[in-house]
Specification:
Elements: E1 11-14, E2 17-20, H1 24-27, E3 43-46, H2 57-61, H3 63-66, H4 68-80, E4 86-89, H5 103-116, E5 122-123, H6 127-130, H7 145-150, H8 152-161, H9 163-168
Parallel strand pairs: 3-4, 4-5
Antiparallel strand pairs: 1-2
Length: 180
């Protein structure tokens, strides 16, 4: 039998065993990389951190969503302790999808959390960041031109990589040819 986590103390129950997420083991993990061959570059890849604002409605409904903050903090602390030359976040930075009207606030809060841990990511957009494919089981609505346009990385790629867009939208600001 498990009990739900207590966000006040940072303790949680995993598989029936209580774990203290605030212990030094989780705050400053030590990585033994001695068995790995020397690398000329080290990449950090993180995905699905699902930052939620404190009053997220889904967190009140599903205890697993309420656990996101503690799990994410632990994973990000561990990730931040790894040596890296480059870091990328593969999407679902926030769990506050566009239709909530809170996506921008949550996205910025997630970026602030990353920065507080010394993490700076190149970012890809996930379905919770910009909308989803038609899927009745997803809380995020369908991706739209507006949500795509709001994602800076996608706007840069669209303007740089698709010359047909230049002809279709001559009123847009375009990157100089060959600069991307």
């Amino acid at each position: 039998m498990t009990r739900e986590m207590d966000l006040q103390t940072g303790d949680t129950v995993v598989g029936g065993v209580e774990r203290n997420m605030t212990s030094s083991k989780f705050q400053n993990p030590e990585w033994d990389l001695n068995l790995l061959p020397a690398a000329s570059r080290q990449f950090l890849v993180v995905t699905d951190t699902h930052y939620i604002l404190p009053d997220n409605a889904q967190a009140a409904e599903w205890s697993a969503v309420a656990e996101f903050p503690v799990r994410t903090e632990r994973a990000l602390r561990m990730a931040s302790s790894l040596p890296r030359d480059f870091a990328v976040h593969l999407g679902d930075i926030s769990h506050e999808y566009p239709e909530t009207g809170r996506a921008e606030v949550a996205h910025q809060a997630a970026l602030d959390q990353f920065a507080s841990l010394g993490l700076k990511f190149a970012q890809a957009a996930g379905n919770m960041d910009i909308g989803d494919k038609p899927d009745p089981t997803s809380p995020a609505q369908w991706v739209t031109a507006a949500t795509l346009a709001s994602w800076p990385v996608l706007a840069i790629i669209r303007r740089c990589r698709h010359p047909r867009n230049r002809a279709q939208h001559p009123d847009h600001e375009w990157s100089p040819a060959g600069s991307c």
